[in-house]
Structures are given as structure tokens and as C-alpha cells.
Design goal:
This protein is α/β, with parallel strands linked by helices. The protein is 42% helix and 19% strand. The protein has one domain: Rossmann fold, CATH 3.40.50.620.
Length: 169
């Protein structure tokens, strides 16, 4: 886990480029803490927030039209999820976030975005605090995929309240 000071590392040599904090958007409760953290860091570093979500392909091949409908509904839900998160970022930072909506497997698409978007400086993840562990993304990205990411990853405990996050940032 990085500290707020570690999060100030740039991903590029251009020191004039604002930091971009990439947040994985989902419907989990821990995402709220990660969003707050990313917004506060962006405000304090005159940076930006980028929101990422991948729409997983429908695994329903028996009837093509049903699979297409499922994918269409999943994309619509993803767009609504990103719109709510973008409105929250706008409210907290005064800036519109960068929105990255991809289709495909989440980790594969995330690695592609990190490779393509050179402005991203820090990946911010919310960690679940329940018996199920920190969550599949935190587990994968802090474990077997850690060597594939070439920027700091900040893992924010999902049980932090706004006051605790504000004190950290």
C-alpha cells in the first residue's frame, strides 16, 4: 500500500502534467472510500480523477438476441454507475473526471488502459473489509499482477469514513 506521499510520484517525465488518479468504479461500498480518497488527492495536488469500468461480455451463447440484450443492459447500468460517480467527482473536485468505459474482462481492460493512458499517475482501489477479503481486484493487483503495473497503487480500506480520509489526504 502506498502512502499519500508515495501517490505524488509521476508516471511520466513531464513534471508539468497534472496527476491523474484512476479509480475502478463498481457498486461496492468500498468504492465510496476510494472515490473520496482519489478526489481529495486530486484537489490537493491540482490533479484529475479518471473513472474506469469494464462491461464484462455476456456469457449466454444459446440465443444471440438474449445475449445482446444482456450486454446492452449491462452497458446501460455501467453508464449510470459512471454518471453517478462522475457527478460525485465533479461535486468534490470542481472538475469533470475522465471517463473510461471499456468492454471486456475487467483486469485485461484495466491493464490495457494503464498501458495506453500515460497521464495516469496512481491507481486507487477500495478494499473490502469483510470476511470475503479485500476483493478480487485488490487481490489480483497486489499479488500475481503486481509486476505488470508500473505505477503506484493506493489501497484504501473501505471502512474509512470521510473524516478519516480527509485526515489522510
Amino acid at each position: 500500500m502506498t502512502t499519500p506521499d508515495d501517490a505524488d510520484v509521476h508516471n511520466t517525465d513531464d513534471q508539468d502534467m497534472p496527476r491523474t488518479f484512476l479509480l475502478i468504479v463498481d457498486s461496492s461500498s468500498e468504492m465510496r472510500a476510494a472515490l473520496r480518497f482519489a478526489c481529495r488527492r486530486a484537489v490537493h495536488t491540482d490533479g484529475n480523477v479518471a473513472l474506469f469500468h469494464a462491461v464484462e461480455p455476456a456469457d449466454f451463447h444459446h440465443f444471440a438476441t438474449i445475449g445482446e440484450l444482456m450486454e446492452s443492459e449491462a452497458r446501460s447500468e455501467a453508464e449510470k454507475l459512471l454518471q453517478r460517480a462522475a457527478a460525485d467527482v465533479q461535486k468534490q473536485t470542481g472538475r469533470m473526471p475522465i471517463v473510461l468505459l471499456r468492454e471486456g474482462e475487467t483486469i485485461e481492460q484495466l491493464l490495457a488502459v494503464l498501458d495506453e493512458e500515460k497521464s495516469i499517475s496512481v491507481l486507487v482501489l477500495g478494499a473490502g473489509t469483510g470476511d470475503d477479503g479485500p476483493g478480487p481486484l485488490v487481490t489480483a493487483l497486489s499479488g500475481r499482477l503486481a509486476g505488470k503495473i508500473h505505477l503506484p497503487v493506493t489501497i484504501v480500506p473501505g471502512n474509512l469514513d470521510e473524516d478519516a480520509i480527509d485526515a489522510l489526504t
